[in-house]
Design brief:
This protein has 252 residues and is an alpha/beta fold. The protein is built from nine helices and eight strands. Helix 2 packs parallel to helix 3 and helix 6 runs antiparallel to helix 9.
């Protein structure tokens, strides 16, 4: 995420691994013909298209004009809407709500889960995967340390939410969703090419380097990359220390 928001071009060029890993989450969802399914935070639309390919009637929703614009261009026959996942206005409309790699970006988690619960039909399922407790522990602690140095000792506040299974299950239950499955697992994620880590930081963590003097963000980025190299650069190149939380819950 850069200051101007999500960058669809960089996302599609360098971060296709997000939806490629998400294909497993679509299989877990197991969409059926004619089901009405909401893809929450659909990005550039690749997983919405996979859900549609199963014969389901999918609606892709995303808060970024850039991402939704690209999704519409990629898949003109599918329906996409620009909206905030924390302000859903649907009532008993969907057989399933699906979400991949989105929910850790939204700090108002109660608003999201409340809206999802209202949007589902009774018996409908919520199937989601996102960053869970301990996600990018090495990456983020290093970014915070380098960023703090450039920001006079104090890194900018975190903008992500990485819950544990217990914490998220309690939240789902508070909103009338019965938790059938919750899993927290490490998923070391390869980043493409020699610039893979720098591209990842530019896309997902650039806010740690905003507000600095001209030239400083790139200087801080170079320093960060060298600090990360001994930790997250292996024989096959760069990787990120992702840990995912995958849940399946049903509206009672
Ligand atoms: C890493 S991308 C994942 C996109 C897609 N689900 C995929 O698997 O390729 C995260 C997406 O979450 C969206 N997003 C972040 N906050 C959001 C919010 N409050 N409401 C809706 N979408 C949001 C971003 O715009 C971005 O498209």
């Amino acid at each position: 995420m850069k200051s101007k928001g999500w960058d669809a071009e960089l996302y599609e060029a360098r971060h296709g691994f997000v939806w490629r890993f998400g294909e497993g989450v679509v299989e877990f969802l197991n969409p059926q013909p004619d089901e009405r399914i909401l893809d929450l935070g659909c990005g550039t639309g690749q997983l919405a298209a996979k859900i549609a390919a199963a014969g389901a009637n999918v609606l892709g929703l995303d808060a970024s004009p850039d991402m939704i614009g690209q999704a519409r261009q990629n898949f003109p026959k599918l329906r996409f809407v620009l909206a905030d996942a924390a302000k859903l206005e649907y009532e008993n409309e969907f057989d399933a709500v699906f979400s991949n790699a989105v929910l850790h970006w939204i700090l108002d988690r109660a608003a999201v889960v409340g809206g999802v619960a209202r949007a589902l039909k009774p018996g409908g399922r919520f199937v989601a995967e996102f960053g869970g407790k301990g996600n990018i522990r090495i990456l983020e602690s290093t970014i915070e340390r380098v960023s703090a140095k450039y920001h006079g000792g104090q890194a900018p506040a975190k903008r992500t939410y990485y819950p544990s299974v217990g914490e998220y299950a309690a939240l789902l239950e508070q909103h009338g969703l019965e938790v059938r499955s919750g899993q927290l697992f490490d998923r070391r994620t390869p980043l493409e090419g020699e610039d893979g880590m720098a591209d990842w930081v530019r896309q997902f963590k650039w806010y740690y380097f905003e507000g600095l003097r001209p030239g400083q963000p790139e200087e801080a980025l170079n320093e960060l990359i060298e600090e990360l190299r001994p930790k997250l650069y292996g024989p096959n190149g760069w990787f990120a220390d992702y840990r995912r939380l995958r849940v399946w819950a049903v509206k009672l």
